[in-house]
Amino acid sequence: MARRSKTPTEALRLKVLAVCARIAKGETLTRICKEKGQPSRDTVMDCVTGDADLATVYARARSSQADALFEKIVQMAEDTKPEDANANRVKIDALKWVASKLAPRRYGDRLELEHSGEQPNVVVRIGNTVIPQGGPTNARGVQPPPHG
After folding, report:
1. Percent of the residues in the chain that have a pLDDT greater than 90, as a whole number
2. Which single residue of 12, 36, 52, 110 has CA 20 to 30 Å from 125?
3. Which domains does the chain have, with CATH numbers?
4. Each residue's pLDDT tens digit, 94-141
5. Closest C-alpha among 61, 52, 75, 76 to residue 28
6. Distance of CA 130 to the CA centre of its chain
7. Three-class HEC string of the chain
């Protein structure tokens, strides 16, 4: 059995680029690939993993997809009628989750950590050197006096 080349043909590259353009506008890869004449999802992913340029285009398309989903979320929220509120809430939550995974820095939940109370023991390791919380110590484990 002949083994397929990892390098996509020019015609296939053009199809994958067109798929990426549609992804960037907010469409899903699965929905696009179900259409007649489109490459399968596996084919698109094989092309993307086997071609660095296509991988870059695909990554940018996914990032743009997050922006498109964000805009869709805002539009849905603005257009929601009281009788559609619960159904749209579910859709909006799903879209928010997807956007947060596609572009976590822009649309992910931000965690703010606040510390109170006693500071825990902190050990810093630099290469093979371990520096305990209070700073460096001599061979006997005693901190040297401050310079001054």
Report:
1. 57
2. 110
3. 10-107 (1.10.10.60)
4. 999 999 888 888 888 776 666 666 766 666 666 666 665 555 555 555
5. 61
6. 34
7. CCCCCCCCCHHHHHHHHHHHHHHHCCCCHHHHHHCCCCCCHHHHHHHHHHCHHHHHHHHHHHHHHHHHHHHHHHHHHHHCCHHHHHHHHHHHHHHHHHHHHHCHHHHCCCCCCCCCCCCCCCCEEECCEEECCCCCCCCCCCCCCCCC
